[in-house]
Amino acid sequence: MKRVLSGIQPSGQLTLGNYIGAIQNFVKLQETHECFFMVVDLHAITVPQEPAALREQTESVAALFIAAGIDPAKASVFVQSQVSAHAELGWLFTTLAYMGELERMTQFKDKSTGKDSVGAGLFVYPSLMAADILLYNADLVPVGDDQKQHLELTRDLAQRFNQRFGELFTIPEPYIPTVGARIMSLDDASKKMSKSNPNPASYIALLDPPDVIRKKISRATTDSGRDVMYNPAEKPEVSNLMSIYAHCADMTLDEIRARYEGQGYGAFKKGLAEHVVAKLEPLQKRYAEIRSSGEIHSILKAGAERVSAVANETLRSTKEKMGFLLPR
Ligand code: ATP
Ligand code: MG
Fold this sequence. Notes:
Belongs to the class-I aminoacyl-tRNA synthetase family. It is found in: Cytoplasm. GO terms for molecular function: ATP binding; tryptophan-tRNA ligase activity. InterPro entries: aa-tRNA-synth_I_CS, aa-tRNA-synth_Ic, Rossmann-like_a/b/a_fold, Trp-tRNA-ligase, Trp-tRNA-ligase_bac-type, Trp-tRNA_synthetase. The strands form two sheets. The protein has a three-stranded parallel beta sheet with strand order 1-2-3. It has a two-stranded parallel sheet with strand order 4-5. It has 328 residues and is mainly alpha-helical. The longest helix is centred in the last third of the chain and has 30 residues. The chain has two domains: 203 residues, HUPs (Rossmann fold), CATH 3.40.50; 89 residues, Tyrosyl-Transfer RNA Synthetase, CATH 1.10.240.10. Strand 1, helix 1 and strand 2 form a beta-alpha-beta unit. Adenosine-5'-triphosphate (ATP) binds next to helix 1. Adenosine-5'-triphosphate binds next to helix 1.
């Protein structure tokens, strides 16, 4: 069975972008692949996190995985920092990455531009991500469009290792949705929707109550026209809302255009809000049940135990090939 791995940072409230770009595919892939889904807390600390918030968000993201339909009997769900091989292989891959290739990463540029002090961890983020994926020899990595560049670097690092030290790592392929791979911010369609955006009006969180969702959508930026038409180059805001609509209502872009022909943006936004609310309602209900039962802790413990066996074996082979003296 082919292997799938992906992760989400506990760096804020999960958004519809995370759901459409990534989690929705996790749920599908668990039926046909051996899946590893993790909460990447070691990645989240590449920007400052308040300890209590980090702990709460880690538990919350894990519970949302389950609430969204990931079945711990089918997929391994775990927290990155609970499997120490990630940090260790991450360091080994940091030594294989070149400054020049890390400098070219657009996520680093986006997250560091305009900041007074930029942590070194943010710079080497992609080598830790490469380690995450290669530890399990994943074949497929379901991610949003923004992670494509990091995945290409992962492939380069795996090839570099295999050439220098001998064949060990599978070269992973990205698995990116055709529509919705890059959901944009509600207040600025030139930026992707991000859970770490300090302005909550820029995203719809999976746990936003219905009235908050309605308000955010009604205030979302649009152009001065009134035609509900998909044209990302000329109508980026409306096109983005249409992508969200298509996912939440399970309709095609053409069906949505026909549905709102001649009705203007008001009716369209109202319809969109109701579809988003309806889509998230069952997920929010399951989330509340999972959090109150406390079951997430035993799920994460079992997940970490199961994946550690795979991860530690890869780490051992990597160290052997690189020339580390292993204990005898
Ligand atoms: P942060 O702002 O802290 O980087 P994020 O919202 O970008 O948070 P990540 O944890 O970095 O979320 O990414 C988790 C997954 O969600 C990745 O697969 C990423 O590609 C995907 N993703 C993130 N934002 C979007 C988006 N706007 N549209 C589609 N997919 C997205
Ligand atoms: Mg991100």
